[in-house]
Amino acid sequence: MNFTIVVMAYERPAGLRRCLSALTRFRTDRASFRVVVVDDGSEADIRSVAEEFEDRLSLLYRRIPHAGVARARNAGLEESSGDFVAFLADDHEPPPDYLDRAIDFFERVPDAELITFNVRSRGGSIARHVQQMYMELTLVMNAQARPDEYGVYASLHLPASRAAVFRRSLFDRVAPFDESLLSGEDGELGARLADAGVPVYFDRDFYIEHWEEKSLRDFLQQRVNYAASFHEVLSRRNPPAPGERRWSLARCAREVFGRVPPWARLSREAGWTGRFVVTLPGLLLFLTVFYGTMWRQDRAQARGTLRAAARARS
After folding, report:
1. DSSP secondary structure of 279-302
2. Which of 38, 41, 156, 260 is deepest in the core (most CB within 10 A)?
């Protein structure tokens, strides 16, 4: 098996150095993978960091005008070759057996098109513990499935993200990442894969270190960005009628508090009850910000569609 590892880099030279250093520690034969660093128009000196590793990795550096993570993914995809393409962010630190884990999976499940992994939030902010719990519970709940004997979920309800490894041939049949989205492009791709009957596989027990140097405010802004993207994707797939409201305050409140019982059950089953209790106030805050954004996006969209309908009639 041959791999191209696409590393999306933007304004984090220290993070990129840590990520590329991790790639030099891979146990997999160095001849079986190459690395494409896509610099998304950084002002920081990303090129010189990439050049530090040219004698240790088969590495290509490509700089593009700043256009967001989806464009960076697609630029790396354009440079990819081999059987598989993997996507890492410059704040990811994969373990030495990252590619070995992917190889074992695809040998075990030869019909699979992609495998995604878990991430462990790292950094100085206490809020990262809430982020960790939020993401793991969301993924396990959204999977709507039970893991196999290896701890791997197969689901049509998961994003194609988290250090995902794809069969390169998949993108010959499915359009790549939607560059009109500034975030949530992995979830949008996951939805299209679901439409095509392609499950996302999620290896819950294998972790990529994710160095998130974010404050609580930054984590909350991330929820805002994801909610705005999610609302846009839903609206594209099922456009609302003029003035139609789908996300009332009552519905948003039900979504927030409706998560608590199933999340408590999932935490109990996974042995996370203590973590769940400690992080619950933060989890409710994250959910409130996410669904509050859905409500605001919905209200703005309803007003916009009414104005557009009025202009069309005049």
Report:
1. HHHHHHHHHHHHHHHHHHHHHHHH
2. 38
Contacts of 231 (CB under 8 A, 6+ apart): 247, 293, 294, 297, 298, 301
Residue 309 has pLDDT above 90, yes or no: no
pLDDT per residue over 98-147, tens digit each?
999 999 999 999 999 999 999 999 999 999 999 999 999 999 999 999 99
Nearest of 57, 92, 94, 89 to residue 73 by alpha carbon: 89
Instruction: Domain ranges for the chain, please list them.
Output: 3-213, 218-313
pTM attached to this predicted model: 0.93
Query: Amino acid letter at 136?
Result: E
Under CATH, to which class is 3-213 assigned?
alpha beta
Among residues 79, 128, 92, 94, the alpha carbon closest in space to that of 279 is found at 128
Rounded to 5°, angle at Cα 214 from 277 and 10:
140
Confidence of residue 308 (pLDDT cuts 50, 70, 90): confident
